[in-house]
Amino acid sequence: MILATDRLALREWRDDDRAPFAAMSADPEVMKFIRALPTREACDQWIDFQIAHQAEHGFCFWVVESRATGAFLGATGLFRVFFDAPFTPAVEIGWRLARATWGQGIATEAARAALDFGFDKLNLDQIVAYAAPANAASQKVMRKLGMIRDEVSDFDHPRVEEGSPLRRQVMYRLARQAWVDASR
């Protein structure tokens, strides 16, 4: 499966994606607001989890690559939230991109393709996104996508240790109808 935009392809994972994903995940700036993947083994497990999610649900955080060069740029996609929270069950959208891609609109372009897939192919009623309060860049992407801040639904991430600045998460939502209305 491949989702294509003018500049990007979102596709399933291959073994040759493991090294560039691990290299990207070793960049402290990339991981500043994301739970760490401190070893190559942890990175490989994350990829294996995405592959299994794709097999079970038909979507995951896909590889984002340049259509012009085939270069690995990161990962963007959809994922079923698998922890208990007041807003679950839910499907989230997220992105993790190499620092060299920042400031080029790659996250927004890739996320729009994932939202199209979620609303048009999966017929989802809503897609959520969340980020650490200090992650202004991701929140800016969420707003560009038309997502609406839902302060009442902010939460403490149950998989992040207490005391971590990543534990508190701010919530954004996008309803299918809002996406349809904005796409007209």
What labels describe this entry?
single chain; 184 residues; alpha+beta; Aminopeptidase; five-stranded antiparallel sheet; four-stranded antiparallel sheet; 5 helices; 9 strands; 26% strand
Explain how this protein is built.
This is GNAT family N-acetyltransferase. By secondary structure, this protein is α+β, with helices and mostly antiparallel strands. The chain has one domain (2-183): Aminopeptidase. Helix content is 32%, strand content 26%. The two termini are 26 Å apart.
Question: Gist?
Answer:
With 184 residues, the chain is of the alpha+beta class.
Strand content range: 25-35%
Distance between the termini: 26 Å
Query: CATH H-level name... which superfamily?
Result: Gcn5-related N-acetyltransferase (GNAT)
Low-confidence stretches: none
- CATH class annotation: Alpha Beta
Indicate the radius of gyration in whole angstroms.
15 Å
Q: Count up the helices.
A: 5
Strand order of the largest sheet: 1-2-3-4-5
The geometry reads as globular
Q: Can you summarize the main beta sheet?
A: 5 strands, antiparallel
Secondary-structure element order, N to C: EEHHEEEHEHEEEH
Overall pLDDT metric: 95
CATH topology type: Aminopeptidase
The helicity comes to 25-40%
Structural class: alpha+beta
User: At CATH's second level, what is the architecture?
Assistant: 3-Layer(aba) Sandwich
Report the strand count: 9
How many structural domains are formed by the residues?
Answer: 1
